Amino acid sequence: MNKLLLAALIAAPALSFAAGPELVVNGSFEQYSGASFSGFAKLAAGSSLLTGWTVGATSVDIIKGNYGAVSGNSIDMLGTPGPGSVAQTLNTVIGQTYWLQFDLSSNRGGDNNAAGKELTVAGLGGGAAQSFSALTAGVSHQSYIFTADSTATLLKFSSGPSGYSGSVLDNVSVTAVPEPQTYALMLAGLAAMGFVARRRKPAQ
To answer: Same structural domain for residues 169 and 198?
Structure first.
């Protein structure tokens, strides 16, 4: 048991490093400086109430406890009405690979059409824009790998066409993907711990 505990303590810093620092500010949308609300509140284009994010297009809704909210505060991208967008600029390293993750749900209260349930992520790292569908009920976890081509990468989520009851966004995260040599060092360290444990076993 002591050996397992020691191995866990030694491996923990390496595993934390592997995850990389979080680049997104307020990815869970809990930092909201507007008045308290029940159900939803409209955030019009240009609103500064959502820490870290810029609201664009027409509007989005911040929602809680209803309308497809995922956990705590979420964003209904289709607004009242929309369409809307949320964006922020990330500090990135040119040539570094990053991992974008987010939870996707949908407001089921109105016109559940495919166009209104579409969520588009702007072309990160100079790539093509990525589209995700929230037409199916329930929460799905989405991810996307990109390589930065700038020290300032725009992360922008945009709703499908105007209407009501759109895609719902929450828990946005962007972290650096470890370089192959980092994985090699981690595996070498774990192998060394295993070798030491085997060498000590006969002596005990």
So the answer is: no
Poorest-pLDDT segment among 14-28, 92-106, 120-134, 161-175: 14-28
Report pLDDT for 3: 46
Q: Indicate the pTM of the whole model.
A: 0.80
How many Cα atoms within 13 Å fall on the side-chain side of residue 64?
Answer: 13
For 81-98, give the DSSP string. Answer: T--EEEEEEEE--TT-EE
Provide the β-strand partners of residue 87: 54, 156
Which of 79, 160, 152 is closest to 117 using CA atoms? Answer: 160
Split into its structural domains, the chain has a count of 2
Q: Where are the beta strands (DSSP E) in 58-151?
A: 59-64, 73-76, 84-91, 97-106, 118-121, 130-133, 140-147
Same domain for 90 and 73, yes or no, is: yes
Other C-beta atoms closer than 10 Å to the C-beta of 54 total 16
The reply to whether 142 and 163 lie within a common domain is yes
Q: What is the CATH number of the domain that holds 64?
A: 2.60.120.260
Q: Per mean pLDDT, which of 17-31, 60-74, 190-204 is the most reliable?
A: 60-74
6 contact partners, CB below 8 Å, separation of at least 6: none
- What whole-number distance in Å separates Cα of residue 142 and Cα of residue 104? 7
For residues 11 and 29, membership in a common domain is answered with no
What proportion of the chain, given as a percentage, has pLDDT over 90? 68
Q: List the domain range (segments joined by +) for residue 114.
A: 22-177
